[in-house]
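Morning!

This is the sequence you dropped in the shared folder:
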Amino acid sequence: MRKVADITVQAGLALLLLSAAITAGASQALAQSAFEDKLAAASKPKGNERLLVEAAELIYDNDHNTVTARGNAELHYGNRTLQADRVRYDRTTSRVFAEGNVRLTDGTGSVVTGERMELTDDFKNGFIDSLRIQTTVQSKGQPVRTRISAPRAERIDGEQTSFDYATYTACEPCKDHPERPPLWQIKAAKIIQNSETHTIYYEDSTLEIGGIPIAYLPYFESADPSVKRKTGFLTPRFITSTALGTGVGTPYFINLDPSYDLTITPTFVSRQGLLGQAEYRQRFDNGQFSIRLSGISQTTPSAFLPGPLGAADRDLRGSVESKGRFYINDRWRMGWDLVGVTDKWFLDNYRIRNQNVTADYFREAVSTAYLIGQGDRSWFEARGYYFKSLSSFDWQKEQPVVAPVIDYDKRINGPGLLGGEVRLQTNLTSMTRDATDFQGIPRTTAYVFTPSVGGVNYPLYETCSTFTRSTCLVRGLAGTDTRLSAQASWRRTFIDDFGMAWTPFTYLRADSFFDSPSLSGYQNANVSSIASVNDGAVSRVMPAIGIDWRYPFVSDFGALGVHTIEPIAQVIVRPSETRIGRLPNEDAQSLVFDDTSLFEWDKFSGYDRVEGGVRANVGGQYSVVTPSGWYANLMAGESIAIAGVNSFRRGDIANVGLDSGLENQYSDFVGRAQVSPNKNITFIARTRLAQNDFSLNRFEAGVIARFAPFLPLDTSVFYSYYGAQPALGFDHRREGITASATYHITPNWFVSGSVLFDLTRYLDNRDLYNDALTAYLANPIGAPPVYSPGDRFFSTGLSVGAGYQDECTTVSLNYINSPIATALGTREKNQTVLLRIELKTLGEADLKQNVNTVTTADGISAVR
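The structure's back. Tokens below.
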């Protein structure tokens, strides 16, 4: 049986306990008693450290003045633990000698192993043979083990360890061939790890990849892997482009305090000079904020296109970005996300990444500030927005400034016998823009102006060729538009003796508009040719009453699952909508009629429109769930306008409602089908069929599958078809396929890719040719246009890549071909190669290179 001693000792006499443990020839029981007695006589404890000694055998040698713990010896002292096959303490020299599978663990969890250790009696100083240190740290939320090994090392004051001819790595040794070198390691003549300054110093060091030296540094230092914040240089940032030249940025992190820091990044680029960046971050008890400043005085502005296509007329360029989050109390929080730039191309030209910049089909930076409150059954949110267009093809004067947007939503129990739920909703929105946003129907080759650079014409800012109600839409109205909306609703569900669910409901909606449209400057006066928009204060009221009926039939067939058939009917009675086409429509333009909106009380997506008239929504759904995990759901239905003005038959100034599938008395049929054979595979399809002949107006279908563990493949494929909507400017159908997949060749190697095919691009090309031919025939100068229909499977977007990832290394190489929005849709592509390398605990580096041959969206050049 192992003997255990647990006693309080003076720090400097820790291992002196061993010398008082046992007298020669005494039994193990008497030895433990003598151990405690001699300790009490030796010294009165001064500290609160506790020593726990465990060993199969304790041996006291009076002749040599030593005490030995043998047989799985384990000594716990303070936050340090020493384990070995045999531990001998020399009272004369106050040295500890541990041999055989020696393992020393400190309070941070760092583990030092070796074949032999010679230490002082407090484990703080000494020499170690065949040393290995293993430390577990967190890297991006994942545990990573780092290792330092050396044939001999010296431990000094418990805070510093010096390794001779050492190696450092975060890679696990190969399980099958542990003698092989790790994927990467640093070899150095000397490595010094300082636990007090949390720094690792490397002298005469070489970086090896797979055992092959690839880089040499006579001296460098890095932060201890356990440290999250330490003053010093970060991973360099490399830049190369036609307009900027070649350059490197060297971020320097300054740990000013545990709660705030500063990062300064000077970046020198050969063609433009010095780009300066500084980012300050600070944490508080209730939140945090950051601010980043970037700026440059360009030495070669002519590398960029002249305005309005680029920033060639600017010497000084820069940006300011800030983000804040603060929790006022457990219910209220506030914050901001702000982006300010001197010009729309700066962030892209100088490769400055910002999470508030969208880059899919169009580029814009969204700035917002907010105040949010949340109760048990209530929600309050106040925001302001500023949209900065970042593409050459977007006109900033058409972008609105939206402030404020205030929403309040409260739910309470219905009063008395009425019961049910009462919901109160309010919204206040105010916005201002300088220029009206027009769109021609059909979309034409009309633009506000067409500048020419180097003999190439660049059409900018789409508009209408003729400003009439039938040929032009108003997507956004110039001037100031303020609206206050409030809605009170009640509903309650009753279940009768037959199992039918009856849900009567009622609501009252009131809106007040305060409009001051601008009809002067730019093209704003043309609004009068399209619609008579109200100027001043007007109000709108919409009361409604209705009932929702559902009758689920449920049958349990055991192994065949639970089957449910549920017919659904809904009737809503309300007056007709008023002032259609005389009010702005800013937030209710994204009308999509499908299975998700069939039973909505109001099918418009925002407050600027309100559905009116008497309407019935009917349909049903079927579902099955089996014990094996099979799930299926089918749903179909339609909407019927019974009386009053059909809100979807009369389009507003943006024609919302027309070509939606709801404009006729009997709507299109909508349906949904979802099948999931198991939790890893899901098939889903949605459709909208014409009411008169069942022709296809809208169809979406796809599959999401994860085939592991049988096949290391994750994939998704979706097909989309949208019928022509001439009233909204889409004369042709739109059809496309998007697919993505990741295949794990091995547990570490993977390939991935995604693609977006535009199947109807040739129709747009045909229209562009016809327009060009008409213009040529009217004025036959130069060569006639050449018709090029293009590929039926036109790749609008493409991304392919491959990579390697393990516990210590991530390497990926990706080629990205993303669309760039122009006035008439996608006509150019942004092609990028991105290489990313991360050596965990050391740092990471990204190398991004544009490979475009023709582009204008970034404001650089027509040809590179």
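Headline: The helical segments are 28-42, 346-349, 761-778.

More detail when I'm at my desk.
O.
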